[in-house]
Amino acid sequence: MRAAKAYPKGRLVRREFRLARIDMTVWFASKAFADLCDRTLVERKYEEPLATRAQIYAMDAEADGWEPPARWNEEAGFSSREFDRILAEHDRRGFYHHDAPSWQFYDRVDAVGVQTLPTKLGIPPWEFGSPLRLFLHWAYAAVGMRLTHAATLGLNGRGALIAGASGSGKSGTTLAGLLNGLDSVGDDYVLVEDGPSLVAHSVFAMLKQDREGFRRAGVAIAELDAAEVNWRGKIELDASKLCAKGLASRMEIHALLLPEIARSRRTEVEKIASHEAALALAPSAVFQLPGDATEGFRFFADIVKRLPAFRVKLSEDPVEIAGTIGSFLEGTGRNAD
Amino acid sequence: MTAADTSCKYEINAPDVVSEDFTGQIVILNLANGHYFSLAGIASRIWTLILAGHAPRSILISIQAKRPELVEQSMGFLARIVELNLVRAREADPGDTSSAIDEAWSGDGPEIQVYDDLAELIFADPIHDVDEREGWPAPRQPR
Question: Which of A120, A218, B108, B124 has its CA 20 to 30 Å from the CA of residue B29?
Answer without folding.
Answer: B108
